[in-house]
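Please check this protein record:
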Amino acid sequence: MKGIHIAKVTLNIGVGEGGEKLANAKTLIERVSGRKAIIMKAQTRIPSFKIRKGDPLGVKVTIRGKPGEEIVKKALESRDSLIPLRSIDRHGNLAFGVAEYIDFPGVKYDPKIGMLGFDVCVTIEKPGTRIARRRIRQKTLPAKQRPKKAETRAYLEKEFGVKFQEEVQE
């Protein structure tokens, strides 16, 4: 029950508006993942950015299991397996960006799409995490059952060969 694994991988692009940019982002995410992407809509109104509730703002796709691990391997390859240590949050999850989709292995440049980047968010879990999500007899997840930053770091170094950059204080 102490081992950790990848629960899901989420790829997303925040465009900020609907129209052609959103359609291009959806096409790109679907090409990279091989799955159908969904459109994310604004949850609240933000007048300073001229965003109304329900406006389409971005696209995302969630991948679980072995295909998710393959996406993580390719995304890390596009970053040369070098990730800043601050990319791991206090819950043990990993998030990083791919600056340009042409860096992603197996994806060719499409002039219709233009140049876009996307975010890769990796959710890490330990076995037994379902007790916090189930509908019947739901319980709080104990601290020992939550992945720690050090455990995630060790897992990624061992399984994917990730090298972490330490932050330099100036």
The radius of gyration is 18 Å. The chain has one domain: 5-165. The beta strands are 5-14, 38-41, 56-63, 82-84, 94-98, 118-125, 163-165.
